[in-house]
Batch of 4 targets.
Target 1
Amino acid sequence: MVMHLPRPALCGLQMVTDVIAQRQGGGNAAFFNGIAAEWLQRVQDYDTHGGSPQHVPTWDAIHARRNSFLNLYLAPAVGSVQGPVLHAMRRQHGLNFCPACGEPGKPNTLDHYLPKTRYPHFCITPLNLFPMCDACQELKGTKTGDADNPRFFIHPYFDVFVANQVVELVIRPPFATPTFRLRTLAGLTMDQKALVDCHVRELQIEQRFADYFTGQYLRLLRNVSSLRASGQDVRVVLTSFRDAVAPAGVNVWDHVFYAATVADAGLMAYLENEPLPAFR
């Protein structure tokens, strides 16, 4: 349940170059000048390997000076190169769904794909930053992967396959009081399926989807009851609901819900023809 996002406009290499230039004459000039070449190379390696923790190692030599990097993110000075970029990425992304889970609502924080506590040199790298809801950020924490799955999370800039729907909803009868499950769509490669499964598990998306499903299904029954009473075509209207939200992302919860509804022949037969629960 993720969205593919366009890459940030600002080049990470240029950001590093400009930040180091702003440090000249300051107390940290010697430090940043000394690590400039390697910092640039590591940012380039991040881009080359799509931010994968399997191929982008930590930088142990800078651990003692970690705060020199973190302060660039946590307390950007007035007139700093990175300040306006961070502000724009936090406030001007125009999203009404979390790109990490697909839940409706404007994401109000930035996440570091590779966590800033372990990879402080990427704390202001635009490709390492993307909007995320609070629930996803708390669940993701500083996790990246393990021995069995070196990458837990889909990267919204590099994993372009999520521009297509990768998770589908299965609604199980009885349709008056249904249950549901989420499953990975067929057609993905083994590596893609494993990554989607990890992402959904680690962000507890199926568990979090439960409350949404309960409320959304009740609204569906109420809407269909009204549509039938007014003589409207139920399938046409529900298909329009699905298509209206598709431009926001085919993996956002609203699209996944209505795509599953319209595609389920048994459910549509129930909605179009069977007695519905009475609503006051």
Target 2
Amino acid sequence: MTFLVGLVLGLFSLSPGAADTHRLVRLLEARYHGAQTLQTTFLERYSENGRVVRSEAGVAYFRRPGKMRWEYESPEKNLFVVDGKTAWFYVPADRTVTRVPAKQSTDWRTPMALLAGEMKLSRICARVEIAAAEKPATAGDIVLYCPLRGEQSKPRAGTGDAPEMQDDGPEESVYLELMPGTGDLARVLVREKGGVTVEFKFADWRFNLSLPISFFQFDVPPGVAIVNGESPAESRP
């Protein structure tokens, strides 16, 4: 949905058993600190009770301050743009575009906006812990547990057993998987109540591409209907 530490932190050898959480956070932040723009390929999966309901892939772009562009290529073309003030979700096949003020968006991609901002995990995480019980998608990666700010976070499950979806627990549990050798963000996992899981896998990060501001603006094509409110990406199954 800024880093003050140099990339020299990447020289540290880190492992889930010995890694210092603070060092990992600073490593992740430092990796993206100097980038004005970012590009990455992504795979997005939406699951319910362990069953994948939807899988999509494409390319995402980020630009400071606060701009994102997600180009969905498979299984169909869609476009999600945050221009800094407004979030737009465009479905060419439906000839509709949904817009919502960016600050009001509850879209699952919104936490990734930190890549287009100051990139301080403390901006979105109430705390950060190593999720020792959360298996990484790629062997050797490390998973961090990030209960979102503003959410009730009674369970401290990130350091031990996987969190239980209790009624008085957090609405969302967010996990960040990173490559300890480079600090690259490899995956974001969002677990919601009711057995809903949203996963983003990232690869092929590229830094400081020449991407104009206009690339992160959305011009409504002629004949396309504008709908105000929650985007389909936030509500669709």
Target 3
Amino acid sequence: MTPRLEHWAQGRRSRAALLTRRMLGTPDAGDEALAQVLAQEIRARVESPHLAARAWQLIELMDLGPIPEELADALAGALALPAAPTLPLTLPTGTMIDDAESARLAGEALALRALTKARRQDDPRVRGRLDDLARRGPDLEGVTRRASALHGLAMDAVHYPHATTRLVDELVRAQRQDGGWGEAGVFHVAQALLSVEHPGAGHALGRATGLLLAHQMEDGGFGSDERSWIAVRWLRRVGG
């Protein structure tokens, strides 16, 4: 299925397509300049004050260039008094969350993902939240919340091996016969499983690959740029 994703990414002007071309080793001649233009557009974008939007902006910018230190500092500060999300919260994966507690958790977890990517895990404001998420994450109710928790911890999983393993195990146990997770968005769960090097995560992704391929469109993509970027990493992980 990789050739179809290669076709989808060819000439496409987006961060996800650029990252796909990099991963597949098929860069376009103008990709270096495109990365700079996309970073400028992302910086200029008016964002919601909610953690999820601010975190995603930071992640996008880090995918395209150096860490924007001032945005990382601001996000670390915002963890203390996060703005309440507007419901439903739509995540970059396309997953929609319509209850306040799950939305709050998803925003905090995405912020922690961004801040650990920005190497801020030893900031006391960040470490305290990581410690708290590791303590309560495995016992959270529901696949969506557990997937959020796993994604939030994953880049610092070396400090939380027990919590990480328990979260993966819970997601594996919740997987259904068709490879999916019921009402929980398959791309939301897959994003979390892709973020950890754990045999259980790889096995679960393999079981869900048929469900993934059912989402593939005629153009080779998966309905949105972010889902297509998740798909290319997913298929690489399972050897598809």
Target 4
Amino acid sequence: MTPMAQVRSLCVYCGSSSRGRETHKVAAMRLGKMMARAGIRLIFGGGQVGLMGITAQAALSAGGQVTGIIPKFLDEIEVGLKGCTELIITPDMHSRKEKMAEMADGFVVLPGGLGTLDETFEILTWKQLHLHDKPVVIVDLDGYWRPLTELVDNIIAENYARPENRSLFRVVDSVEEVFPALEAEPPFTTVVKTGRM
């Protein structure tokens, strides 16, 4: 089975802010539609705001399946997207991230803030520790993630990570390159093991 054939769901990490670049919003919309047309379920943070909401609404409007996963305290302040195919409410942020990782066959990172960085580094750390081997694709729209990749390169240069850690993720410049990047990944298992499971 090819890696892309294994991908039935993708977790998209991205910003909850609506103040980002218009090009990022357009890309989020394109990714949501692409996933729907390919029959790939979107797994996301459940919010109706920012790039999260744009990606989910685009997938839904194109007939796609969307699973939102949101902690109870955020859902209570009406941040959750009620039109999801499925909305899972978790007790806390940690449970949310664990559930997102469990349900996804791969991970795509769009521009975002501290929360997106947190999610990205955690899923990369789990991969480094062999808790999963699912593909991670970072979409470097407009060079947004260049400082992140430079930071990783510096960490490796300073001997705080091994050179092979640079292969924990792929970097592409557009959402159109996401599926080819996934296709280029080796086959993977779908088991995610965390210290809490």
